[in-house]
Amino acid sequence: MSDAPTWYDLLDVSRDASPDEVRAAWKTQIADLEPGDRRFDALNRAAKVLLDPEARAAYDASLPEEDAEDGTADVVPPVTASAPVLAEREQRAVARSSAGPRTVPSWLLAGLGILAAGLVAAVVWMWSAGGDGGDDSAARAAQVAAESAVVPVLSYDYQHLDEDQKAATSLMTGKYKAEYDKLFAVLQENAPQTQTKVIADVVASGIVRAAADRVQVLVFVDRPTTNKLSAEPTVYKDQVTLSMQLVDGEWLVDDLITSPVQG
């Protein structure tokens, strides 16, 4: 057996912890972590699984029965493509004044979360018309839509959050919008206090895989970020995987996963 902790161990909550208890534990533990910290990513994965009823039930079922009884399951927590990925990856841990009170993270990205296992090292498959002789126009349209959508989804200004939220959600499926809205509420609590602004900029993109009505696109994004303690932008570099779903002839964001670009 591995000595790796379960998601419950990582967040230091019991197996029967309520969603509110899980959320509170998650917020406390990520408060002082930087976005590139591996523990930050692991905590986000844990929270996403445990805050999603279906994902949590599937995860609990994956734990050995004998360990599930005493709450000390000793397995490596799985990350499955079927579980929605945590959108709650913060844009930046705002610097704290030595004389001031402890501040909270500025923003938790919507969809806005953890790169699926193995994707960081994957080579992006650039869809080619010559690959199987098929028409790649649908995949290309999804790629263009993903590049356009990722900017409003990952950008915001504390001075007009409502407008930013409206612009972002107009580009999402109903399923992802429901997740995004819950997480955006965290931003609305924190951003006005930290006066945070983020402007996403697309650097490059490629198609990872494609089907008739669903295309996965990898987009590389720069995110210059400022707040009241740092007028000079700090540029975060991310690779963002968007699952684009065709709905009534329009490509919409159905899932979004982010990870810091390594190196």
What is the strand tally? Answer: 6
- Secondary structure tally, helices: 9
For the record, what CATH class of the largest domain applies?
Alpha Beta
Which residues sit in consecutive blocks of at least 5 with pLDDT less than 50? Answer: 66-134
Q: What multimeric state do the chains show?
A: single chain
Helix content: 25-40%
Q: What does the radius of gyration come to? A: 19 Å
Alpha-carbon distance between the two ends: 33 Å
Domains, number: 2
Q: Report the biggest beta sheet as strand number plus sense, adding barrel if it closes.
A: 6 strands, antiparallel
Which features would summarize this protein structure in a list?
Nuclear Transport Factor 2, Chain: A; Helix Hairpins; 9 helices; alpha+beta; 2 domains; 263 residues
Question: How is this structure best described in words?
Answer:
This protein is α+β, with helices and mostly antiparallel strands and 263 residues long. The chain has two domains: 1-83, DnaJ domain (Helix Hairpins, Orthogonal Bundle); 89-263, VirB8 protein (Nuclear Transport Factor 2, Chain: A, Roll), CATH 3.10.450.230. Helix content is 38%, strand content 22%. The protein is built from nine helices and six strands, in the order αααααααβααβββββ. α7 packs antiparallel against α8. The protein starts with 6 loop residues before the first helix and ends with a strand.
